[in-house]
Write a structure and sequence with these properties.
The protein is mainly α. The chain folds into two domains: 1-31; 40-140, Cytochrome c-like domain (Cytochrome Bc1 Complex, Chain D, domain 2), CATH 1.10.760. It is built from eight helices and no strands.
Length: 146
C-alpha cells in the first residue's frame, strides 16, 4: 500500500510541475497578455458590455485615425505603441494600443477614453460620443497578429 501511495504522490507532483511549466512557457510566448492584465484598469462591467453604436466602416476608421493623430500621438506614439514623445517620462507609461486592440471590448475602450485615469486624461468633455466610438473603431483595427 505504501508503494501505491508513493506512486500516486509522484504522479501528482509530476502533473503539478508539468502544468506550472506549461503556464510559464505560455507566458513567455505571450508576454503582452500578461502585461495587458497586469497594467490596465477595467471599465465597470455594464460599460464594458456596451456595444459600439457606430458601424465599423472605412469612413469611421478614417475619422478615428484622424482623431488619433490629432489627439493621441503625443503620448501613445504615431505607431500607437506607447512610445510618444510626451509620454516617455510618464508613470505608468502610455499603453501600447496595438497590443490592447482585440483584447479589450469596444465598451471597455470607449469608457477608458471617456474617463481617463492617472496621466491619461478623460476625453468626454472634448470629443463627442460618436468621435469616441470612431476612435475605438480605429484602435481595434490595430490588432497585432499574434
Amino acid at each position: 500500500m505504501n508503494s501505491h501511495v508513493s506512486h500516486v504522490s509522484f504522479l501528482c507532483i509530476f502533473v503539478f510541475l508539468l502544468s506550472g511549466s506549461a503556464l510559464w512557457a505560455y507566458g513567455d510566448k505571450h508576454p503582452e497578455k500578461k502585461k495587458i492584465q497586469k497594467h490596465h484598469w477595467a471599465a465597470p462591467p455594464e460599460e464594458s458590455k456596451r456595444t459600439n453604436p457606430v458601424f465599423l466602416s472605412d469612413d469611421s476608421v478614417l475619422r478615428g485615425q484622424t482623431l488619433y493623430l490629432e489627439n493621441c500621438t503625443g503620448c501613445h506614439g504615431r505607431n500607437a505603441d506607447g512610445r510618444g514623445t510626451d509620454g516617455k517620462d510618464m508613470t505608468p507609461r502610455p499603453s501600447n494600443l496595438r497590443a490592447m486592440a482585440g483584447h479589450h471590448s469596444d465598451g471597455d475602450m470607449a469608457w477608458k477614453i471617456k474617463k481617463g485615469k492617472g496621466p491619461m486624461p478623460g476625453w468626454e468633455d472634448i470629443l463627442s460620443e460618436e468621435e469616441i466610438w470612431d476612435l475605438v473603431n480605429f484602435i481595434q483595427t490595430l490588432k497585432e497578429n499574434n
